[in-house]
Amino acid sequence: MATEKTEDLPQEQANPPPEEEGEKDETLFNEFYAEVKAIEHRDSVLTPKQQIDKLNRPGATYFNLNPFEVLQIDPDTPLAEIKKRYRQMSILVHPDKNLDNKDRAQKAFEAVNKSYKTLENEEGYRRCREIIDEAKLRVNEMIKQKKKQNKKEGKPPYVPEDEEDKYKHAVHVQTCKLFADLERMRQERETKDMHERKRKAEDEAAAEEKKKMDAVWNKNFEESRTERVDSWRSWKSGGKKAKGVFRPPKHRAEKR
Predict the structure, then answer these.
(1) CB 65 within 8 A of CB 186
(2) How confident is the model at residue 1 (pLDDT cuts 50, 70, 90)?
(3) Is residue 54 over pLDDT 60?
(4) How many whole angstroms separate alpha carbon 116 and alpha carbon 176?
(5) Residue 185 CA to chain centroid, in angstroms?
(6) Helix residue spans in the chain (DSSP H)
(7) pLDDT value at position 214?
């Protein structure tokens, strides 16, 4: 019987060596990775309407801050491939090719164009890569803390992010959060700068108005000097004091 033959086999044949186990794991991973690539390819060939919907979906304002997300490419994609991908997507969502959905197509086209311009620029590409590297650091730290907590509670060290797809998803989510946080900070900084410029302009206008009023006051004061002296002399000699000689400038309400 087959069971008897198995019992007669040497130990190394009855139990596959670690090398064979490693090869099986490698095969499984390759199959998984091929499936991921197939999903990515499927997304890359979405219809124009689907691409437009994707770039106009709820939260697109923040999702579209990530150029890799907009162009649906891996951060390690070479510039030549990025350019090729940009051309494909810009044709798909171009307003002239989507006349029945022109307004939304225009927004999608602008998002695609902006993303490519960001990655085409060396400084822009470097900043985007720094954000992704920071996202990976944060995810790695999160994994470390989770495993530390598991050890403290006597649980196995395994965490979901040990799996490649879940790790990539965690990095993706963290990357989107970082892009959104940076955009929020930029908007707050821009609003603060705008208020500061407005306050400075108001202060300068008030200072200029005061300067003009002081100039008018000094002019009137100097022009009435002789009349004031004559009026004083007249009063001293027993005459009546002249009225309404000095004319100070009228006060103007401060503009805000």
Answers:
(1) no
(2) very low
(3) yes
(4) 17
(5) 8
(6) 2-8, 11-14, 18-44, 48-55, 60-63, 67-71, 79-93, 102-120, 122-152, 164-223, 225-236
(7) 83
Over residues 40-63, mean pLDDT: 79
% of the chain surpassing 90 pLDDT? 35
Q: Which tokens sit at 190?
A: 């821009």
State pLDDT tens for residues 170-196: 998 899 899 988 888 888 888 888 888
Q: How far apart are CA 99 and CA 69, in angstroms?
A: 25
The tokens of 251 are what? Answer: 């006060």
pTM of structure: 0.56
Q: Are 242 and 230 in contact (CB under 8 A)?
A: yes
Q: How far apart are CA 12 and CA 123, in angstroms?
A: 56
How many Å apart are CA 243 and CA 256, to the nearest integer? 36
Give, as one character, the DSSP assignment of residue 253: P
The CA R_g of the chain, rounded to the nearest whole Å, is 38
